[in-house]
Design brief:
Radius of gyration: 31 Å
Low-confidence stretches: none
Helix content: 25-40%
Largest sheet: 3 strands, antiparallel
Order of helices and strands: HHHEEE
Structural class: alpha+beta
Number of strands: 3
Shape: elongated
Oligomer: single chain
Strand content: 15-25%
Number of helices: 3
């Protein structure tokens, strides 16, 4: 025994009309091609008289389905910048590097700042103070 769903062979009420989808894609490609998806949706709301405009997410899905990419995507990966390695100084005392670190050094719940001076050529600690 089996059951047939009552909505079988019916078109969803939430389905986007093909003409509306075509109009959205056409507007993006002709007038708003320099917009990202978010700004494009705002422009549709503000400047275009579109009845039954779908949600922002649906408009994005329509554009993606039609092989359109957003101009400014928030998930672009940043290129890693590799800093060149600096050679150490040749003579002791020619460069002293100072650094400070704010941390709970004594594990008492009170943070202290450690100041330290390091010689660049030899990596010797020249001095430190809390």
């Amino acid at each position: 025994m089996s059951f047939i769903h009552g909505n079988k062979d019916r078109v969803s009420e939430k389905r986007i009309d093909k003409e509306l989808e075509y109009r959205i894609v056409n507007l993006f490609n002709t007038e708003y091609y320099y917009f990202n998806f978010s700004h494009f949706y705002d422009a549709l709301v503000d400047y275009e008289n579109i009845d039954n405009l779908p949600s922002k997410k649906t408009v994005c899905r329509i554009l993606i389905r039609n092989s359109i990419k957003s101009k400014r995507s928030s998930n672009k990966k940043k290129e890693l910048t590799v800093h060149p390695v600096r050679n150490r100084r040749g003579k002791e005392g020619s460069l002293v590097q100072l650094d400070a670190s704010y941390h709970d050094w004594f594990q008492t719940g009170i943070k202290s700042t450690l100041y330290i001076a390091i010689d660049d050529a030899t990596s010797k600690i020249l001095g430190n103070i809390f």
